[in-house]
Fold this sequence. Notes:
The complex is a heterodimer of chains A (200) and B (246).
Chain A: E1 5-9, H1 17-25, E2 29-33, H2 36-41, E3 44-49, H3 53-72, E4 77-81, H4 82-85, E5 105-107, E6 115-120, E7 122-123, E8 137-142, E9 144-146, E10 153-158, E11 162-169, E12 172-175, H5 183-199
Parallel strand pairs in A: 1-2, 1-3, 3-4, 4-12
Antiparallel strand pairs in A: 5-9, 6-8, 7-10, 10-11, 11-12
Chain B: E1 5-13, E2 16-21, E3 24-30, H1 32-41, E4 47-51, H2 54-57, H3 60-72, E5 77-80, H4 86-95, E6 99-102, H5 104-108, H6 111-120, E7 125-132, E8 135-138, E9 143-148, H7 149-159, E10 163-168, H8 180-189, E11 194-197, H9 203-211, E12 216-219, H10 221-224, H11 229-239
Parallel strand pairs in B: 1-4, 1-12, 4-5, 5-6, 6-7, 7-10, 10-11, 11-12
Antiparallel strand pairs in B: 1-2, 2-3, 7-8, 8-9
Amino acid sequence: MNLPRVVLCDYGAGNLRSVSAAFGRAGATTAASTDPTEVLEAPLAVIAGVGHVESAARGLEPVAAAIRERVAGDRPTLGICVGMQLLFDESEEGGRGLGLLRGPVRRLRARRVPHMGWNALALRRESALLEGLDAADVYFAHSYAAEPADGLAIAEVEHDGSIVAAVEQGALAGVQFHPERSGAAGARVLENVLRWSRNA
Amino acid sequence: MVKKRLIPCLDVAGGRVVKGVRFERLRDVGDPVELAQRYSELGADEIVFLDIAATVEGRGPTLELVERAAESLTVPLTVGGGIAGLKDARSLLRAGADKVAVNRAAVEEPSLLGELAAEFGAQAVVCAIDSRGGEVVTHGGRRPRGLESIAWAREATQRGAGELLVTSIDTDGTRGGYDLELTSRIAAAVEVPVIASGGAGEARHLAEAFEAGAEAALVASIVHERPERLGELKVELRTAGWNVRI
């Protein structure tokens, strides 16, 4: 069987070990890369994010053009956490994202920020990415969140108001939570992602 | 609604889980990753490794351990204990810890919190505060710092801490319940989530800490004796109407 090869965009600040291991458990081979050609040609490219959006955007610069080209060519691309925020435009945290999806990234307005811990997904439209995950608890750790243009959100969570937890537009998707740290539900998300990337 | 979290804390030294009395006569009780895995299966929402020998032995075994844990755990991992400054914290985060808990280094060099938040985001920066009689203490409670705990909590979050781990030395080890006054005053003073620590003996104590405003409760000795207790605590809390993950 041909294993899908997942390329994790390596931009320094974030640690890719846990994401890589989680994709490995889901049955995929992974490689971290800073090489634009590898990022462009990967069956699935992942922008896994922890850290500050501005330093992440800076670190991502060498592969930004490759990511844009992938997305223009409808190749499966997934952003995780800050990696999802980077798909959007301007962030209140500072800096600009890739501008691939429309909407700002704003600081959360809630009694407790960061939004930290397990929260239940509420699916907003049908999507292969989150199949079987309505009401599943997944792990969040963020102070900023994308406010996508209409129709992009596929799931939300409640935290003194609703926060967009996942977006999808064609072969481009983002999850604000950390599937690699979300137990069995997170593993299911990554299995869905791999299936989605093969069919996209 | 974000769930209230239960977080088992494992003391590690030289890459192993240890038990001991006042840091003396340490007894090896197992592999941290295996034990963390077990807690994760029993419903732990996160895991904390407290490196109690870090300042004595250096970081080698802990870094190797964190790398291994980052690969196999499917819940978040926080590492604390003996982090002397930016370099230690950075090594642990680069090794795969999701968060670091800094205590004394933050008291002595508060700008560390901001530097870490700028590099890794506030969500990766936990400020651990040990408090006795309302005053910040370090060195396992032996050294009073002349800092008021609530004022320090507020300052730490303004500087960049994204979460506070508040341990009351007054209640730690008593199993008589968390320090509710300290927990509620700090939870009211800050915007970030507060983890209550020190004194858990039964499910009711955790409920009281949540009621006092804590988002999470650290558990140590009550679950180490019998890890299955962790799952029971969650069921008891859920039955009592608390929003916990089962």
